[in-house]
Amino acid sequence: MKTLAILTAALFATTATAQAQARGTTITGVVYDSLAKAPLAGAVVQVVRVDSGTATRNYTATADALGHFRVDSLPRGKFGIGFQHPALVALGLDSPLRAFQIGADTSLVIDLAIPSGHAVRLERCPGGNAADGMLAGFVLDAAKGGMLAGASVTFGWTEIGVVDKKLQTIPKRTQVKVGDDGSYVACGLASGSPLTVDVAEPGYRAIVGEVVVPDSSAMRRDFRLADSSVTGGGAIVGKLAHADGSVVASGQVSIPALDTEAPVANGAFTLANIPPGTWMLEARVLGYEPQNMMVDVAIGAPASLVMKVGDKVQVLDAVTVIGKANGDIKVLDDLVKRNRASSGTMFLPGNVWLESALYPADVLRAARGFRYRSMNSVGVRGCETLNSLGPRKSLAIYIDGGRFLGGLAELGTMVSMRDVLAIEAYPDMISVPAKWRSFDACAVIAIWTRR
Asked: What is the C-alpha separation between 386 and 257, in angstroms, rounded?
């Protein structure tokens, strides 16, 4: 009886093994985007048998929203596995391949991933500085999804350097064109600090904002441009919170490019009637540094996000000044008060841009929302947006509080930088103080001269 029991158990074990081998091996795993630090949903996983003398057969599966995939019924043999995804195209990478062998296994776990940002940068941008960053992605039509070949992507930042034996900030700028496949790759960028980015294509609303590439690494970022004729259709629903997770009691969020804003109440806010596309969202809370975030808006479900309020604005200790305040001190005091309620860029005495500029337009190289072209010409975020929607408006210039009727070219000959005390720059009408808002203006710069 004991012998019969052993034989019966062996028979069942042999039968189970045969059935398992007949069903084949199952492979499961996760496809991961190391640059985005997130699962790579939609990746098409391909498994190919590579035994010599056997007919080649492909097995495929598609990763779900969490990056999980499953391939069933694989026979014994030698295989190669890889995946395809638009992210690889944008980064200019071939599919990462792995070899494996199936023996008596009934299941295997194989995870796949886009290489690390550091590895991608070394491959795609060889020979650069070790501290450089790389940014790549697609530029798309937000409504139709088509590739916008020929669009321009411009990056700007500042670096510290020595000019004429003096330590100065040096403006840097690089521009790349979008290829026929809709992708762009920008090498040699500053990493670990904000980059201004300007994405433009005729007939579309420009994207003007900021991105930060991780230190000595690469990042992928797609940009979806909204057709200038498209209005509304999407929404942003969000939450504004402090670093500890507690909600912000009150504040304001805005999309300067669309001249739209909404209040924050008990941490919640909603921006409605937003055209589909990529937009720079700005949040302002009294006493805190403004925060920016790139948001992709689509038709249908609203974009949902959480923004964290950053560091508190540094407040200087109060001092008592004995004596009569001169005109310069009063001007600067008023300017600082405006800065608390507005969101322009302030250039105060001692600012390196103010001290090194030859013409007022030179200072605007470092102003948020402004794009320097020449001493006589600058691009301005608010003007590009409003002029694409209706009657043409212009950059308004004020000198010592009064409207200057000329342009930058005339300003450069009228005002010497030796006489300039401070400059305020407001790139759109949302950020402009109420007293300088006018129907013919799309942005404002205010120049104050020494008393």
From this structure: 8
pLDDT(11) > 80:
no
Cβ atoms of residues 364 and 371 within 8 Å: no
Closest C-alpha among 138, 263, 255 to residue 205: 255
Q: Which residues pair with 147 in a beta bridge?
A: 140
DSSP E strands, 242-368: 250-255, 260-265, 268-274, 277-284, 291-297, 303-308, 345-347
**Which stretch of DSSP H or E encloses residue 87?**
helix 86-91
Average per-residue pLDDT in the chain?
A: 84
Residue labelled with tokens 């008592």: 320
Six-digit token string for 50? 């590579």
Tell me, what DSSP letter sits at residue 95? P
Q: What angle do CA 33, 35, 38 make, to 5 degrees?
A: 45
Instruction: Give the span between the Cα atoms of 276 and 142, in whole angstroms.
Output: 6
Name the 3-class secondary structure at 369: coil
8 A C-beta contact, residue 213 and residue 124: no
C-alpha distances (whole Å) from 370 to each of 122, 335, 349, 377, 443 are: 32, 20, 20, 10, 10
DSSP state letter for 286: T
Query: pTM above 0.90?
Result: no
CA 379, CA 372: separation in Å to the nearest integer?
Answer: 6
Q: How far is CA 11 from CA 2, 6, 14, 84, 177, in A?
A: 14, 9, 5, 44, 68
Q: pLDDT by residue (tens digit) across 364-375?
A: 888 888 888 877
Mark 168-177 as b/e (b = at least 16 C-beta within 10 Å): ebeeeeeebe
Amino acid at 447: I
Whether 430 and 280 have beta carbons less than 8 Å apart is answered as no
Judge contact between 422 and 390, C-beta under 8 A. Answer: no
Section 70-86 average pLDDT = 92
pLDDT tens readout for residues 26-54? 999 999 998 888 899 999 999 998 886 66
Q: Which amino acid is at 125?
A: C
Q: pLDDT by residue (tens digit) across 362-416?
A: 888 888 888 888 778 888 887 877 776 677 889 999 999 999 988 888 888 888 8
Q: Which among 322, 346, 318 has a CA at the least distance from the CA of 332?
A: 346
The tokens describing 429, both together, are: 């009408």
CA distance 60 to 73: 11
Contact assessment for residue 84 and residue 44, using Cβ atoms and an 8 Å cutoff: yes
Interatomic CA distance for residues 425 and 446, integer angstroms: 7
Residue 267: CA atoms inside 13 Å, Cβ hemisphere, count?
Answer: 12
CA torsion through residues 34, 35, 38, 42, sign: negative
